[in-house]
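Let us work through a complete example step by step.
Step 1: write down the sequence.
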Amino acid sequence: MLKNIPSIISPELMKALMQMGHGDEIVLTDGNYPSCSAGPPVIRADGHGIPELLSAILAFFPLDVASGNNVIFMKPNQGKNPPIWSKYKEILKKSKQIYSIEKLERFEFYERASHTYRIVASSEQALYANIILKKGVVE
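Step 2: predict the structure and record it as tokens.
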């Protein structure tokens, strides 16, 4: 056990975050996402929601400020923005990192996610809660 690492970050997740390089991406998926058939290796985060995971990850994870959008949301086919997005924006603001959000339609999101470093499969119940983070450099 180590000090000051939130228990929500499993050893497997911490290892993946540390192995990622500049420009690598990681996906945090909701309970409806086809994580195991999407391509990249899956890290299980059963019993956890994405807001809690996002908060914990951003304490260690620098977002990429050198290349356009560094946060990607899955956009609903129609209708208004999912309520969980406002939680994500609050968490991003609290992280005091520079971020730029892109919104991708479901199948575009799936395609992008299929090329990421890892998928973190959560038990998040909110719809369209999936989010991709692009890693930057530690300054």
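Step 3: interpret the result. The longest strand covers residues 25-29.
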